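Let's practice the habit of predicting before peeking. Look at the sequence and jot down your guess about where helices and strands might fall. Then scroll down.
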Amino acid sequence: MNAVEKPKDKYEDYVIRDLIADVESRFPARPGRTNRAIVGVSMGGFAAVTLALRHPDMFVFAGAISPAIDVPERRFTWKRASQWLRFRSIFGAWASPERDARDPFVLLRSAKPESTPYIYLSAGEQEPLREPIQRFALRLQAVGFAYEFHTRPGGHDWTEWDAQIPGCFAILFSVMGKG
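Done guessing? Here is the structure:
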């Protein structure tokens, strides 16, 4: 995300404009939405889904392995005060238009299922993020988005993520028509 309170922190612009252009200029990557996917783990999974919803014309597939999908809706706690302040600098003030524009649950309200990238979600059965990921999957289902949601034993760690990566990429290649 481009940070609301730090104008120089333009990570979304970097991914959408600079990184994609750099990859397509340096490597034999085919340009265009039908040849482009975004995949991430944890906060990267949050970014993959959010960028896919904010830029549906850029990607055909978004993979989110254990995504921290609920980050914009997390409330302040003393235990995580420094994290909350960091998130505020990225997402903006609570209930602000800037925060809503970076919240995947809010973005789903105006997203069009027919033009949104295919979304792959996974979560460990014992991980603390399972409930919000499952809640997000239910919203995708209720509105008719193309998606799938997988769980497997495990927590929010590389053991679970390593086990999910092959399935994510199998679906990615299937969606992209590359068998």
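How did you do? The longest strand covers residues 118-124.
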